[in-house]
Amino acid sequence: MTSKKTTLPPPEDAAAAPALRQGFLPKLIGYQIRRAHARMRRDFNQSTADLHLGFRPGEVSAMVLIIENPGLIQIELARELDVDKATVVSLVDHLEKAGLVRRQRSTKDRRKQALLPTREGVRMVQELRRLTEEHEAHYRQRFKDGELRQFLDFLQRIYQNDGA
Amino acid sequence: MTSKKTTLPPPEDAAAAPALRQGFLPKLIGYQIRRAHARMRRDFNQSTADLHLGFRPGEVSAMVLIIENPGLIQIELARELDVDKATVVSLVDHLEKAGLVRRQRSTKDRRKQALLPTREGVRMVQELRRLTEEHEAHYRQRFKDGELRQFLDFLQRIYQNDGA
DNA sequence: TATTGTTATACTCTATAACTATA
DNA sequence: TATAGTTATAGAGTATAACAATA
User: Fold this and answer.
1) Are B82 and A38 in contact (CB under 8 A)?
2) Is there a contact between A159 and B26 if contact means CB atoms under 8 Å apart?
3) Do B3 and B50 meet the contact criterion of CB atoms below 8 Å apart?
4) Closest residue of A to B159, CA-based?
5) Engineering a disulfide at B68: which of A23, A32, B3, B28 sits with its beta carbon 3.0 to 4.6 angstroms away?
6) What is the pTM of this model?
7) Chain A partners of B140 at a C-beta cutoff of 8 Å?
8) Where does the pLDDT of residue B110 fall: very low under 50, low under 70, confident under 90, or very high at 90 and above?
9) How far apart are CA B69 and CA B76, in angstroms?
10) Per-residue confidence at A56, pLDDT binned at 50, 70, 90?
């Protein structure tokens, strides 16, 4: 799937080790979700690096949100991404330097920075979308249609904190 | 659930914003898993911080694996945690300084460092287990029994990379 | 006073590369 | 030569605190 140039050991080389006892870990949502996330993130980063794109998951999300909601202000982006406003500043700095978005002070409320995609930004998201879908396909194929819908729903239940 | 002392915006304050358009993001496993993981990790860290324990998810996993497999060597721990061996060195350093594990050179193969829990380590894991189960309960309650089993199975499908 | 954005700073997590010692 | 562990270093990702401009 990806070109492995790392020093990481081959994961789950079935014949290699006699399988460790994991105690109560496998029953923990937190444990399983951490491993699954780390696996996907590493694969994704490797994929973008292979194409000399160097985009990270959070940047793709931000670009999509800006394109879908042109004029989005930074504080709203922070809320949507569930990160601090200071984190968004450096994220947008990076996207702006790459020529993918531009900031525009709101004339109504001059505290606000509206975010707008550039033409290059729109083009890049199209490319990143193709890459992302390709990456996703490797994982989606492990699920039947109904299972995928349910999996996404389960993940959303974790994110939504009303029940907590 | 946790004492919020951060500057993060209140997440999902339903009445606050008119809900952004998310484009294709919600259909992405990668997007949903990233958000879900970030939410759980933040809550967990906050919980341990509140108790002045300061343990992170990866450390709990490592401690459980060492207790369940006394004499585990570092390279095996790295493989199980799916991280580089250098990462394990600093992880074990931390646990050793906290008095929870000790290293013991293998006499058979003096390259290997066997990891053994201290009495204090065993005691700490009992405490961390209680904390972890309490933390998990907030999320588990959003799932029926069958759903939880299926959710854990789905997450494992992501982690296992044979199908990729 | 409260909000938006910014800067400065720091901490966690993790990887890579180069090294030592052992096999 | 290959493996286990270590050290040094660096980068991504994120948070906190203090601040300026604006409301």
Assistant:
1) yes
2) no
3) yes
4) A36
5) A23
6) 0.88
7) 29
8) very high
9) 10
10) confident
